[in-house]
Amino acid sequence: KELKKINKVFNKSFVQAVDLISNCKGKVIAAGIGKSGLIARKVSATLSSVGISSFYLNPGEANHGDLGQIDKRDVLLVFSYSGNTYEISNMLKYANRFNIKIIGVASKKESILLKASDVKILLPPVLEADPTRMVPTSSTSITLLFGDTLAIALMHKLKFSKDRFKVFHPGGNIGKNLLAVKDIMISGKKMPTIHLNKNMNEAIKIINSKKLGLVVV
User: Fold this and answer.
1) Confidence at residue 64, expressed as pLDDT on a 0 to 100 scale
2) Is residue 215 a contact partner of residue 192, using CB atoms and an 8 Å limit?
3) Are 192 and 206 a contacting pair, CB within 8 Å?
4) 107-162 tens-digit pLDDT
5) Residue 105: what are its φ and ψ, rounded to 5°?
6) How far is residue 133 CA from its own chain's centroid?
7) Degrees, nearest 5: CA angle 116-117-118
């Protein structure tokens, strides 16, 4: 029930976020602290796997010299459910100072994050699923769900295909499922072939040189 509230996110701001990332000439830098940081890492990994250059930046580390990793061509994608996490404030000031675009994802409209963001993604408030209604459960799930919907929307906009996915994900079960005949077939000069009038010694030489254990007559 709570996760169905994600539909409220699909508005003009969501479209702006998709357009901003699809037109980005640099990298998408995902950032967040704590559980929001874990979500930022996952979203960044998903974007990278579909061909959108991205990496995760810890705002705490950024305050101690890593802000230099952010380029003017980059887009900052910052996650903070409260939007008032202290550690992100210096990163936001740096981005605003150098006109680096920020997509802020938070649940509080008047939060520090959304006030500083060029594109404001306002997550709907949700009831946590645990008995105390305090442990981040529904809130982290809906934030992660937003990240996945953003990635899927970008895939549609950029006309992402199975062939492109295979380039970025050659390993594991996904890579095996995307493997085509053309990826493993032997053709042209690599084929061990011999004319039927040739003798057995010549056939053996070709079998040894092509290293397939056979020859096509």
Assistant:
1) 66
2) yes
3) yes
4) 999 999 999 999 999 999 999 999 998 899 999 999 999 999 999 999 999 887 55
5) -120, 110
6) 30
7) 130
**Token pair recorded at residue 212:** 């397939």
Mark 19-32 as b/e (b = at least 16 C-beta within 10 Å). Answer: ebbeebeebbbbbb
Instruction: List pLDDT tens digits, range 14-58.
Output: 999 999 999 999 999 999 999 999 999 999 999 988 889 999 999
In sequence order, the 6+-apart residues with CB closer than 8 A to the CB of 6 are 124, 142, 145, 146, 149
Tokens 């810890």 identify what position?
A: 58
Tokens of 151: 């990635």
Q: Cα(204)–Cα(169) distance, rounded to whole angstroms?
A: 39
Give the Cα separation of 57 and 69 in Å (integer).
9
Residue 179 zone, left/alpha/beta (φ > 0; ψ -120 to 50; rest): beta
CA–CA distance, 150 with 168 (Å, rounded to integer): 19
Tens of pLDDT along 50-67? 889 999 999 988 776 678
Which has the closest alpha carbon to 151: 59, 36, 39, 38?
A: 39
Model confidence at 207, in pLDDT bands (50, 70, 90)? confident
State the pTM of this model. 0.75
Torsions phi, psi for 193 (to 5 deg): -125, 155
